[in-house]
Amino acid sequence: MAKTMTLIALMAGTLAGCAGMTERQRNTAIGAAGGAVLGSVLTGGDAVGTVGGAAVGGVIGNQIKK
């Protein structure tokens, strides 16, 4: 649980620097952060699950258009 909370705090801090990003870059970063958190939760904090979730979330976020 502590790893998950640390990861969430790290991602939130990283996303705070999104002001100069394009919409697509911002969506990719948000998707990657969400995917990493979800991957970590679903795999019990396994590093491979976290990285895999970030990769999948980043791809999905990149493809989202408003």
Describe this structure in words.
It is a single chain. 77% of the residues lie in helices and 0% in strands. The chain is mainly alpha-helical and 66 residues long. The protein has one domain (1-6, 24-66). Helix 1 runs antiparallel to helix 2 (23-42) and helix 2 (23-42) packs antiparallel against helix 3. It starts with a helix and ends with a helix.
Low-confidence stretches: none
Roughly what percent helix? over 70%
Q: Could you give the order of the helices and strands?
A: HHH
| Category by helix and strand content | mainly alpha
Task: Count every helix, treating DSSP H or I runs of 4 or more residues as helices.
Answer: 3
The major beta sheet can be summarized as: none
* First-to-last CA distance: 34 Å
Number of strands: 0
| Rg measurement, Å | 12 Å
Shape: flat
DSSP strand content: under 5%
The mean pLDDT is 84
Number of domains: 1
Fold topology:
Elements: H1 2-15, H2 23-42, H3 47-63
In brief, what are we looking at here?
This is Glycine zipper 2TM domain-containing protein. With 66 residues, the protein is mainly α.
